[in-house]
Amino acid sequence: MARIKPQALLQQSKKKKGPARMNLTTIILFSLIVVLIVFFLFSTYRHWTHRSRFQSDNGLFVSEGENEYGDPKKSDVPGYAVLNTSKGHIAVELYKESFPEVVDEFIDLCQKGHFNGMPFNLVIKHTVIQAGKNQKFGASEDWTSRGKHYSQLDSSSLKHKAFMLGTSKGKRDNKGFELFITTAPITNLNEKVIVFGRVVKGEDVVQEIEEVDTDENYEPKSSIGIINVSLRQKI
Q: Does the model's pTM come out above 0.90?
């Protein structure tokens, strides 16, 4: 039997070990690449999941590079507002198609916190509740005279239905934007009030507010008001 020289054995050993070292290196590199890809996908998933959840919770759908309500497209204007009151939440749909200027003004004031802490200073049972920082003389008499004829109204008219949201007509400054929510059909409502929305959820809260005790001027005896207002795309 022929003897194999030590040098030949060494060369054969290197040839056998060479592929093993190459395979191990390839596996390590492949594993690192897989780990990096998985980490990247997981990070991307977490980012978009968190972003989607945040937008959904806040009812916002904002394009990249835009402010939440800074010069948005018409379709991006919030369609709803939720009034968080001391009695509960009142959700209203905004008539942005019918009264875009009034709705824009309302949204702008919401962003500025204008309605935060605004009290309900006029509560007339079966007629209206009013939130505002100023109450004009004779306002209660005007509303009570309108409310007496609610049974004679055409209930098919939106402007005459209960649970409508409006504000006074004419020039308004920041302190003059008051909110009216009717609790019954009101005659000639559109003469002095711009109806720019309607209550879609929280009618029971509106009714609870109108049941509070008031003095002879229809002012609530206990403090009740709007805590804050949030804007939504959906309800």
A: no
